[in-house]
Amino acid sequence: MARPKKGQLFEYVVYKGDDIICHGTAEECAEKMGVTVLTVQRLATTAYMNLLIKRKKCEGSLIAVKIPVDELEMSE
């Protein structure tokens, strides 16, 4: 995956296991979940995923998928 361009906008989809908890911008997801924007952003990092794998706690954990907004617009 290419590095994001400066100023590129993203939307997030937050999952707990197979269930979608929320989706939207980092700010919208943070508000819905009662956490900080930084928390939502960290849930989408490779480092966080590697930590879950290392701890063998992947199933049922909160994770987020970060999607560039321009990709969403292209699929419509």
Listing every helix as H and every strand as E from the N terminus to the C terminus, the arrangement reads EEHHHEH
Query: Cα-atom Rg, whole angstroms?
Result: 13 Å
Number of helices: 4
Strand content: 25-35%
Across the major sheet, the strand order is 2-1-3
Query: Overall pLDDT, averaged?
Result: 86
Note poorly predicted spans. Answer: none
> Ends: how far apart?
21 Å
Q: Main sheet, how many strands, which sense, barrel?
A: 3 strands, antiparallel
- How many DSSP E strands? 3
Walk me through the structure.
- The protein has 76 residues and is an alpha+beta fold.
- It is 42% helix and 26% strand.
- The chain has 4 helices and 3 strands, in the order ββαααβα.
- It has a 3-stranded antiparallel sheet with strand order 2-1-3.
Please tag this protein with its features.
4 helices, alpha+beta, globular, 76 residues
Question: What layout of secondary structure does this protein have?
Answer:
Elements: E1 10-16, E2 19-24, H1 26-33, H2 37-43, H3 46-55, E3 62-68, H4 69-75
Helix pairs in contact: 1-2
